[in-house]
Amino acid sequence: MTSGTSGKAYDVTGNRILAALPEAERRRLLAHLEPVELSMGDVLYRPGEQIEAVWFPLLGVCSILAELDGPAVEVATVGDEGMVGLPVFLGVGSPTERAVVQVAGQGLRMDAGQFRHEIAVLDGQLQQLLQRFTQSMFTQLARNSACNRSHRTRQRCARWLLMTADRMHSDQFDLTQKFLAQMLAVRRSSVSEVAGALAEDGCISYSRGTITILSRAGLESSACSCYRVIREAIDVAFPPAGDAAEDDRQGMGS
Predict the structure, then answer these.
(1) Phi, psi angles (nearest 5°) of residue 102
(2) Which residue from 54, 169, 213, 223 has the highest number of Cβ atoms inside 10 Å of its Cβ?
(3) Virtual CA dihedral for 114, 115, 116, 121, nearest 10 degrees?
(4) Would you say 201 and 218 are in contact if contact means Cβ atoms under 8 Å apart?
């Protein structure tokens, strides 16, 4: 556990990369991890600018956006399974994408220079975990690319809502139609129609920017296969432990 400036306690094992580290190595990192609130709309890094820090989310969703000639398009999301700042790990001088908080939560921040030092001295453990996370991100990028081209808005919306619920560990979270439209690369009117249809089917309720999942089974039946593939890629990289593993299998209808 560690505490932020507000005195609120944060459990570092809430991040699956940090949880998978040997305890001694995790304790070593604690001195360099700063608890932070992740507020909706926070920009964590921008294209062409040096990344000053990396973030390990504990709760919330961060989006990686490609800035095109028109509106930005989401290419990947990161939650408690990963780290925001992969370009630092990969040795890239500056990113070509923008990272922004889409669903508010909490996380742990580490200076980029200190992070580079830690991955050099932690005897391969942190590097190996980050390699696993990178592979799961490749899977997500590939599926997102194919999904955006091939699957209907309803399927993609259901997948996005399920992944967000997984990362929030809750069936209720705040999400505006504007952000969801940006994530799905569709008009807000299309999001409104899809959300209304999912609500009519009893899958969700949506009121004043708050999404509540009423039927996870119904939402999973509406989602495309990409949800299961991405979820399984994350669980292969960081297997849930104990009862959580059984809960996850039941949640996916195994």
Answers:
(1) -100, -35
(2) 54
(3) 90
(4) yes
Question: Is-contact 121 81, C-beta < 8 A?
Answer: no
In whole angstroms, what is the distance from residue 222 CA to residue 202 CA? 12
The answer regarding whether domain 2-147 maps to CATH 3.40.1190.10 reads no
d(CA 85, CA 77): 12
Q: How far is CA 52 from each of CA 57, 84, 109, 129, rounded to the nearest angstrom?
A: 16, 11, 10, 21
What residues does each domain of the chain span? 2-147, 151-251
18-29: pLDDT as tens digits: 999 999 889 989
- Residues in CB range of 7: below 8 A, 6 or more apart: none
pLDDT in tens, 167-184: 999 999 988 777 777 667
DSSP state of 70: S
Q: What would the two tokens of residue 128 be?
A: 């190996």
Residue range 151-251 forms a domain whose CATH class is mainly alpha
